[in-house]
Amino acid sequence: xxxxxxxxxxxxxxxxxxxxxxxxxxxxxxxxxxxxxxxxxxxxxxxxxxxxxxxxxxxxxxxxxxxxxxxxxxxxxxxxxxxxxxxxxxxxxxxxxxxxxxxxxxxxxxxxxxxxxxxxxxxxxxxxxxxxxxxxxxxxxxxxxxxxxxxxxxxxxxxxxxxxxxxxxxxxxxxxxxxxxxxxxxxxxxxxxxxxxxxxxxxxxxxxxxxxxxxxxxxxxxxxxxxxxxxxxxxxxxxxxxxxxxxxxxxxxxxxxxxxxxxxxxxxxxxxxxxxxxxxxxxxxxxxxxxxxxxxxxxxxxxxxxxxxxxxxxxxxxxxxxxxxxxxxxxxxxxxxxxxxxxxxxxxxxxxxxxxxxxxxxxxxxxxxxxxxxxxxxxxxxxxxxxxxxxxxxxxxxxxxxx
Length: 403
Hints:
disordered N terminus, 20 strands, 8-stranded antiparallel β-sheet, single chain, 403 residues, mainly beta
């Protein structure tokens, strides 16, 4: 969502044009899908479903229980149970350890990578950063879409160098759609793809068959003088691969917590995640991953006559894309890890860079923080705080690793 300011010079030119050419009508601003203007305009064209919110930036808060906890002891315990034939409940996370070789080489860590899939329904995920010699524990694929009919369905996934296997994704949650089409909602999907991960774990993985009304890879926004954008449902957002692995270099007491959304926000949003078993005291390294949809940096950058039109570039708009992220521990100690004001990284978590070079509305970011204030005290919870300037965003999953 982008809220654009009128440019005084253009307003003056419009007045002059209307004075000399009263029969010609212009709009100061083309309506850009994904903006407040688009959302309001859509209400005139499409019947609004009951309960559809007006996209006014507001402060929101949430609390979540832990969807998955892992450490070396927990993985070994569950692996022994599964390998002996016992069926264990996995909740919203379809994870399995029945093929894990025991004993583990070390502690547990995770890696994340993603790809934007708007107007394509497919893309290549380039997973990097898993250390040599690491042993795969399990792997998950999560993806999101804007739809009026969330439903389980099958997709293809696997190495780009082999035939992709078929996996069925189930809906793990829904939330308000991020200001594209008020007839839809955001739906998050998840499936276990452990069997498709290649030796070495790092690699290029193709995901295909995600539901998308448009598959010609057009720009999500108006492309000046070219094809109009589409807000037809289903609108694919993106997909991310999450791998859990063990290696000798990872301490045995390392801990990993997974919390699933999804949650739409367009103002200040804080979500407090419970951490049970508790975060152990004395662990000073924090690795935090955030996956989500509909961030972008593009802004209006073209014109036709007196009509200002957006294009599909990566021109930043600090007034509206100035998103910021904080991590807060159970004692209230806070560190701003992303956005203006951060001493660590002034870039946004929500820039759509999983779709580079075109900005395609999906992000997977991980930050490693060496700070005793965050994990050193241990604790029963931690908080992620986002600040959006009105841009409609959905966080899909948070993963906390401490060691």
